[in-house]
Amino acid sequence: MTTVHQPSISSVLQERRLVTAIPGPRSLELAKRREAAVAAGVTSVVPVFAERADGGVVVDVDGNSLIDLGSGIAVTSVGASNPAVVEASAAQAAAFTHTCFMVTPYEGYVAVAEKLNELTPGDHEKRTVLFNSGAEAVENAIKIARLSTGRDAIVAFDHAYHGRTNLTMALTAKSMPYKHNFGPFAPEVYRMPMSYPYRDTLGNDGVAAAQRAIGMMDKQLGADAIAAVVIEPIQGEGGFIVPAPGFLPTVARWCRDNGVVFIADEVQTGFARTGRWFASDHEGVVPDLITMAKGIAGGMPLSAVTGRAELLDAVHGGGLGGTYGGNPVACAAALASIEQMTVLDLPGRARSLETLIVGALTATAERLASQGREVIGDVRGRGAMVAVELVKAGGTEPDPHLAKSVAAAALAQGVIVLTCGTFGNVLRLLPPLVIGDELLGEALTILCDAIDSCAV
Predict the structure, then answer these.
(1) For position 3, what pLDDT does the model report?
(2) In which element (H, E) is residue 171 found?
């Protein structure tokens, strides 16, 4: 007998419901206010204004209920108003919202550090420091690596995305919109080729792809000049690229053998998203430092660097921190979110979602191919982090126009779908891990129909 998953208790009715065109009149009214008040450089994927959200649904100010396949970019894994997270956040806010951990510390920060030390890969002694955003976490991980090794060079990879600060823009591969005309960027950042099985001449040979990158590092830099290698175990904005088996372990082993700090950027892949607590777990990779954010705190701003005690403890007193880093309300939300992930077995739920999502998309790809419309070049991902790479029929040329058209068609029917990829041709699915099977199935039907109708 098949078990149908039902979402956890939510104050938001879990249904798709359209009462106006998208966007509706109230959203259009707010868009005018936004245009007059908000910087034009801040754009939004969906032209509606949210009023409520939880489970797998976002309700806009016009009363439309949209199925959410984006989770605020992999943030609201436990739901956007999970009762346990709401209760914990409210209780902490009633006690105090801020004292600054660097002035008057509090237990919540310590408790989050203890939990991250326990959950992250490896059984070595660890330390944790908390910040606000993923970019902050990555930047501080590099500070730690440089100080502890006494080296300067940092290696990142093709298709990488690590943030919008000056240093993390240097690490990020894609120019538009993240880097264009924002330079000059931080120095001593070097880019190496990534394993991209769908487009890589080395295909699914991850070891060979790793050796290619290692050979370039050895020749162009020399291991003794490299402080750290920073990599997303599954690349996010770059297109949900899952490196071929063996790539990550081989690079990590080379780092260990050469005293190079291996930094896993798990800002998007962490906290049950890929079917394990962390994507590094899939191949048994134990990072020296791991950066986290997004799904860590149910929507509250929090990030972290966790890693080997000797690396973090090498930093002088006062060298790490920040006014809001490890905010007490965000820490309370994180502890409640992690507890919900455990109680609801969200790593297991992510694996179930993978089966449903990949099954529907693969069937659609096969059906379109049988009709001579081979526009789905690749379906890939792990857990509830799945991508569809769209191409022009009969080849592998990226088709960003098709991706944009499909996302727009799905939205018109009440389904939020994000796009990404170096070439802008990838649909990325990041549903909340608490979404119900029926709601997800409805969204997938609409998405697959949108691909069908747009693939002319």
Answers:
(1) 35
(2) helix 166-171
